[in-house]
Amino acid sequence: MLAKLIESREICPEVRHFVFEVPELGELSYLPGQFVSFVHEVHGKEITRAYSTASPPSGNRFELCLNRVEDGQLSPYLFAMQPGDTLEMTGPLGYFTWKTPVSDSILIATGTGIAPFRGMLQSYLESGGDRDITLIFGVRYEDGLLYRDEFERAAATYSNFHFWPTVSRPSETWRGRQGRVQAHALEALGERRDMDVYICGMKAMVDDVRQRLKGIGLDRKRIVYEKYD
Prior knowledge:
Blueprint: E1 2-12, E2 15-21, E3 35-42, E4 45-52, E5 61-67, H1 75-80, E6 86-93, E7 105-110, H2 115-126, E8 133-139, H3 148-157, E9 161-167, E10 177-178, H4 181-189, E11 196-202, H5 203-215, E12 223-228
Parallel strand pairs: 7-8, 7-11, 8-9, 9-10, 11-12
Antiparallel strand pairs: 1-2, 1-6, 2-5, 3-4, 3-6
């Protein structure tokens, strides 16, 4: 089926937020956190890339958050798309979704790994979910805190949601958490071992956090992760 671009906008340097729709469907059904795959021919070769949805289901529309990879095969094409342009897609698919039932949870993201959490959080919080949820979002610089205003508003609106942005290369004016997400994950967990931990981001970060969590005795069944290179 075809995905048609409705709009895209830059949300920080080399990162864009995209809104697509699937014209042939009245409703695109999926679980928040699942991904879609785009298929496109580049230099005579068919390229397929998977991208996590950054929104809960809404009619036949879905949203993505993508960074432009300079030597990437598909992202430069996506960044050059104009409203009305289309490309082939499959899905949504994937298992990086809320466990059932939802437990008190820690969500850990770096960079565009925040995408699935945006949709998961919107769906859960707006539906009245009352479990305690902490989002730890790590970036190098403050301007990389994608959707920061949204998460800050959610933390002010929902008493069970806590937003912990952390910056590894902070400016002199930054007053929030500093360093990498790994240390803050252990802080959020504390002595509890009855929480689920969801991790999304680059492979090295995900693997490091998983090892640290298992090292302090968290059951591996409580660790849900998705990683990319």
